[in-house]
Amino acid sequence: MLSRTAGNLYWLGRYMERAENLARIIEVGYRMSQMPTMEGRTSNSEWLSSAVAAACDQGLLAKHGEAHLESVLSYVALDDDNNSSIRCCCNSARNNARSVRTALTGEMWESINDMWLEFNSHWARSLKSDNLLGFLDWVKSRSTQFRGALYNTMLRDEAHSFINLGTYVERADNTARILDVKYHILLPRGEVVGGSVDYTQWTTVLRSVSALGAYHYVYRDVVQPWKVAELLILRQELPRSLIHAHYKIDRYLQEIARHHGRRYDCQRLAGKLYSELGYSSIEEIFQEGLHEYLTGFLDRNNALGAKIAENFHFN
Questions:
Q1: Are 234 and 277 in contact (CB under 8 A)?
Q2: SS3 call for 191
Q3: pLDDT, tens digit, for every residue of 259-273?
Q4: Residue 239: what pLDDT?
Q5: CA pair distance 190, 39, nearest whole angstrom
Q6: Burial class (CB in 10 A: 0-12, 13-18, 19+), 87
Q7: CB of 84 within 8 A of CB of 11?
Q8: Which pLDDT value is given to residue 8?
Q9: How close are the terminal C-alpha atoms of the chain, in Å?
């Protein structure tokens, strides 16, 4: 497979995953903003935390001066100048898909193309605060439709591996950002890390990764921060946990190596990170400091993404 083709497939997976993740982050900010303001938080702290989780805070503040519902909608959802906006992610996913049209099934192409056409013709003009939740549900359902077409219609070949590789690199990054940002920015003043934190606040962390039901099934307990962290970091049965994402990354890199008949440096890095997650405990993570652990994880995950691009000549 040509490096250019592999790169387009990899970034197609990343952009589709990123669009869904941004929708999830905005939804959490919206639901938190509907709750009574807690002591130690400003009325717009939820929107600032959402912008930070989306890695859009600097650009948003430079352009709009303040993070609030309207500025987040404008910058994170619709802005053409923000390469990580939902609009740009949908457009970039479509452009990458069009470049590798013959590697995709008809159902996959139609789901991406229809998503962009509907976004550009309808949502780009009509998105307001009063139809925000409908828009976010639409983004998530379109991403799910694409993923369903991917899993149900595509050959399990090299192209399939590269799309999924991009998906899980992006997912690991997103889950770590949500857990880190929500844990620290939304922590009420006077609370200690690991202390008694508002139940509704932590419920939103789980909702952002569709894990609230999974949490109650696994722990059968009220929501507690250290258990939330364990679920999202170390429980491999949760499809959006860090360890599950890196299990998938390691698996798809092995598949690519089998197709190529050789191993790459990125495979060594991925295996090392997956092993570290597998042998970690939540007690060790909290002893190190959750923020410090997640910051280090994001650095290693980004380094893995850079090494994948280097090994397969995506740049």
A1: yes
A2: coil
A3: 888 899 999 999 999
A4: 95
A5: 9
A6: buried
A7: no
A8: 96
A9: 15
| Residue ranges covered by each domain of the chain | 3-311
> Which runs of E-coded beta strand occur in the chain?
none
List % helix, strand, coil for the chain (3-state, nearest 5). Answer: 75, 0, 25
Residues of the chain with pLDDT under 70: 35-44, 182-198, 315
**Distance (Å) of CA 300 to CA 15, 46, 192, 217, 306:** 20, 27, 27, 31, 10
Q: Which residues contact 284 (CB under 8 A, 6 or more apart)?
A: none
CA distance 213 to 17: 21
Q: What is the pLDDT of residue 44?
A: 66
Residue with tokens 């508002």, as numbered in its chain: 198
Residue 240 is which amino acid? Answer: R
- Are residues 185 and 53 in contact, defined by beta-carbon separation less than 8 angstroms? no
Nearest Cα residue to 310 out of 265, 272, 273: 265
CA distance 12 to 92: 8
Quickly tell me which residue has 């932590």 as its tokens: 202
CA distance 15 to 274: 23
